[in-house]
Fold:
Amino acid sequence: MPAPANAGLHRELKSAVAALCSGFPDKYWRELDANREYPEAFVQALTRAGYMGTLIPETYGGAGLGVTEAAIILEQIHRSGANAAACHAQMYIMGTLLRHGSEAQKRHYLPALARGEMRLQAFGVSEPTTGSDTTQMKTFARREGDKYVVKGQKIWISRAQHSDLMLLVARTTPIEQVKKRSEGLSVLLVDLRHAPGLTIRPIRTMMNHATTEVFFDDVEVPAENLIGEEGQGFRYLLDGLNAERILIAAECVGDGRWFIDRACRYARERVVFGRPIGQNQGIQFPLARAYADVEAASLMVAHAASLFDEHQPCGPQANMAKLLAADASWESANAAVQTHGGFGFAEDFDIERKFRETRLYQVAPVSTNLILAYIAEHVLGLPRSY
Ligand SMILES: Cc1cc2nc3c(=O)[nH]c(=O)nc-3n(C[C@H](O)[C@H](O)[C@H](O)COP(=O)(O)OP(=O)(O)OC[C@H]3O[C@@H](n4cnc5c(N)ncnc54)[C@H](O)[C@@H]3O)c2cc1C
Structure:
């Protein structure tokens, strides 16, 4: 395969991100995990280095790069044993503001986001009673003059306590009054710093992930914070979801590579029955298979990202990238635990921590079953099953 035109830039990005991550070793992540603390110092270092402005055009003070470069950055963070879940949303949410926001909105928010003075890290879609059937969401934004009044509840809204802004998806027309259930949803930018009626409650999870439930009790949002046209939010959401799937898939590729590196290193060093355990095919083959699966997933991630950056339809590729990469990272995680034997369960080896972290991607931001159902319907032309 020919090298991409910007292969040099990509190599530089990888080594710069790896250098930054080396300042945040395993011990840093292990201690945060034990205390369920937010990696503020890591996020600040990324911000100072300009990575949080990766997708923001240069005219607004950002780096003006694409999802391809964002994927490289996030993959490298995960490949270094770190976790980008604390800050990745700014990369996949950004597209909605860039592609569908007004010029006034871009001028207002993008320079401050690029300078790191503001964070757009919260994405409010999931609801407790709606599940994966997004169009059934109940949170309602009622228009009253020059504002919307939002009532409802969201769940699993990550980083809401560490973000200034939330990209909120809410119904603006009741589902009974629309022709298609995907109509009547809108996207609003909610300023979390000035939102009387908003309550955020953290949810403790099996890994260190700053996720929350969020209650909207008549929260007022200026009408000028509507992104794009009222009622068209589902369409904007799909763009954002494709970016999200591609970028999470890149993180899974990074996790997979980290697990395989660690497992191979251990397999070469650990001697049992008078020889390195890595000399046994029972240890080699799962790692070799996981490696092949991670490499294949990585190609699909790069393909989906380049389609996204070219503004081409990329739903199937973004979904397949997420499916293949999440499976490959989970397969690598299992192989790494098995290779480490008892030490795979010891906190000091970090394998169990990363194992818990990468398990999430079978479920979020979209579950494996829903991706399979999407491919069956939209790619294979089979009857809709959901
Ligand atoms: C740590 C964490 C962080 C998250 N962060 C965010 C965030 O920042 N913002 C946000 O909006 N959301 C977030 N989410 C929510 C996440 O996107 C959802 O959990 C995910 O989409 C699955 O939805 P659900 O939990 O409602 O599962 P459900 O939809 O209730 O599904 C439960 C199970 O049933 C299966 N299932 C459901 N319907 C079908 C079907 N028709 N066919 C086959 N199987 C089916 C699913 O695959 C799944 O395995 C987060 C979740 C977690 C756990």
